[in-house]
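Regression check, zinc ion case 668:
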Amino acid sequence: MTQAECVECGAEVSLHDDLEVGEIIDCGTCGAELEVIDVSPPVLDRAPELEEDWGE
Amino acid sequence: MTQAECVECGAEVSLHDDLEVGEIIDCGTCGAELEVIDVSPPVLDRAPELEEDWGE
Amino acid sequence: MAVSDADSEDPPVVVKVGGAKAVDPAGAIGDVADLVAAGRSVVVVHGGSTAVDDTLDRLGIEPEYVESASGVTGRFTDAETMEVFEMVMAGKLNTELVADLRSAGVDAVGLSGVDGGLLSGPRKSAVRVVEGGKKKIRRGDHSGKPESVNDDLLRGLTADGYVPVVSPPMAGRERDGGVTPVNTDADRAAAAIAGALDAELVLLTDVSGVYADPEDSETLIESVSTPAEFEALEDAAQGFMGKKVMAAEEALSGGSPLVVVADANADDPIVDALSGGG
Amino acid sequence: MAVSDADSEDPPVVVKVGGAKAVDPAGAIGDVADLVAAGRSVVVVHGGSTAVDDTLDRLGIEPEYVESASGVTGRFTDAETMEVFEMVMAGKLNTELVADLRSAGVDAVGLSGVDGGLLSGPRKSAVRVVEGGKKKIRRGDHSGKPESVNDDLLRGLTADGYVPVVSPPMAGRERDGGVTPVNTDADRAAAAIAGALDAELVLLTDVSGVYADPEDSETLIESVSTPAEFEALEDAAQGFMGKKVMAAEEALSGGSPLVVVADANADDPIVDALSGGG
Ligand SMILES: [Zn+2]
Ligand SMILES: [Zn+2]
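Current build output:
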């Protein structure tokens, strides 16, 4: 298990091993939703707010 | 070799054995162009005049 | 069902014909011809997702469906799928419907939502999905919903006697100002157009309407006129009919005086719908 | 080459962009934007046979070429091929060119020749071919040449500030009065439109023009103004350039004041062509 820094509050976020690009991780400290931008090394960024739609 | 009647002049037209639908046969008597509409039994009709184009 | 909002004298009519199987409903084509002959302005909108799926299948491309956090399933439209979508919707189905209408004497002109920015809105390229229990951001989607309608283009064509025949895709606005064709729901497109033209909207479907109890054809909801009745209608709507109801709501709030969901397989489906028989 | 016929003050411009590979020539798109900004009415016409062939290949359909009695080779377009033709030309290529033009600020509206009967003529369903030395009639072809142009539709759109983007197919008239989409040559379509609008015609190609000696780039024929020079030009034209020359002739006899065949790969191909540099 690796760690990365929360871009919102700076706290360490624990990352599981089978991390995938695009996955959304919740920061345990501030609750921010963080998107996995890269996996090796892990890079996190704030996950975009996206409106849910009623589909195509 | 079978025969069929020319729809233009009524003369007998000789047909070869490997006749194909769509093939154009010239009447030896009047010179009319005859389209093979069916092969067994052979049916001939006047071949349509079609303008030649310069292609797609 | 008929949702009545206001009286009006011969407003334009927007007719949404169904997907692939219902894209050439002889009854609807004859009805459009009759309406035009009677002096009504008509705009036809069509979809055709199942025809898109057929062509994806012929090309060996697997259609991808993704699930949202709230459990709604939607199509994910990557670049390759978008290309097929353009080909089938704006190419094959639109051209063939225009030809069928013209054969019936209707002076039809086909348009996609990209043409003239007819249906425009921001491109949605990222979507939140749930895959194997994980929340994810999927990028590269080509979808959007119309935020603006170029009604001037449609008014200009109908004023000159044409019947615009409109299909997805729509014009997706990129952040850099560029335009990308993107997938959009055809019912919603029809609703946006009806709202922009203050037009009556007829949504033709393979079924006859919304049923209070979908298992019981006696419980067809024929019309609603109060918010409470509308809420009951919403509750009753299920599956794809839910999208018809949301489209109806968007059209009405956009300015449409009347929305009818009607059976595409009737003899005179549009004329019947407009005379209240929907 | 520039073929000059008459003086005129800022007539409309019809620009034919090449097939698939040249369908998105950045120079041409910028030029169209500049012409429109300068107040010219512009109509864009495109083809794309090689893209049709690519999609036929992906679908496992063999394109069929037939030979006429005089040795001219042409495509035979059966129903299945016609469907692919609609998808690629009117669907994919037209939609994407419209999006690219809109990204460049051009208010483009895509149309096929079927829309509004823009390009109409009898469907040619039977062709005379030579196969294995035998003369034959092949039926089921989907082709035609435009005998009439709905120039009112184009004038209405350009008057409202739009740039129509036109592609095959055209509206093929059946004997029973029905309309079938059929294949037609895009150069000839552009010529018919230029003639109907009394417009200047710019035919962009991957090569720079007609050469008296195709092996010698010094022998480019820049312009002709007499019948004798035109005959020399005809003699010099070979291969697909022959079709450009025939299209030029059709446009001029239809009313076009100027026809230019120009290199699509130049920086400002259309503007250069219209200022005589073609
Ligand atoms: Zn945090
Ligand atoms: Zn004879």
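Comparison notes: The first strand of chain D starts at residue 2 and ends at 4. The radius of gyration of chain D is 18 Å. No diff flagged against the previous build.
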